[in-house]
Amino acid sequence: MNDMTPGRPDDGMVLIEHLPFETDDGIASRARLGLLVLATDFTIEHEWRAIMAGLPGVALYESRILNDAQITPETLRAMEPRIAAATDVILPGSPLDVVAYGCTSASMAIGEEKVFERIRSVRPDAKCTTPITGAFAAFRALKARRIGVLTPYRADVNRIVADYIRARGFDVPIFGSFNEQDDGVVAAITPASVKRGVDTILSHAAVDAVFVSCTSVRLAEAARAIESETGVPITSSNHAMAWHALRLAGITDVMPQWGQLFERQLA
Fold it and tell me: Rounded CA gap, 195 and 176, in Å?
């Protein structure tokens, strides 16, 4: 009996083994994106999946990284030694085009280069991004120098954010915060509340763009509508990092439904 000849096991079931098959590039024919999601994050996967849904051949693979729900400088920095292990379990042994670390404030508290070092210790060939890395790339693509910032963070985390952005050569003439340190509560802040926060920022200073910091905040699906109403480009942690990861992976599709940024290429 050859491999294609039906066999008949003792229970009477017909068994046909070694059926012929062909392979292709799978669902990631254009790009494989790895995403490190905070254990407490409710939002980033939803927003990234919505954006990627319009991009056949782009696949998203995720891992969760342990973090504390209370957002403080100390809990943010505590994530650094966990980054490599969380990266390593995303498709072990298979290449990733980009690895994105999904925490804005920790990327600044730890430092982008230290985050990248941890990722590259297990994925040396992957390009890397973080929400603030994506935001800086977005500001350059939008030709924005004066940035209005909106966050949910408490005061000491806000200081890290403001100082970090200014140290990279951008002006922050206006900074607003909900001053909420619990990630679960932040994820429940309504898009209408975020819009009111943006309006308040714009009423106090002229800016080239608004950046909404924190991967738990819901903004991506409202970005285009807010831009249409205010006339000011807007991006967020999830929104900017998704765009940056796609561009790093060579995905140049123009997607105006996601706002002005998704009509731009890397500067």
Answer: 12
Domains defined along the chain, listed by start: 28-130+241-263 (3.40.50.12500), 134-237 (3.40.50.1860)
On the question of pLDDT at 73 being above 80, the answer is: yes
Is residue 59 pLDDT above 90, yes or no?
yes
Whole-structure pTM over 0.85, yes or no? yes
Mean pLDDT, rounded, for 76-104 = 97
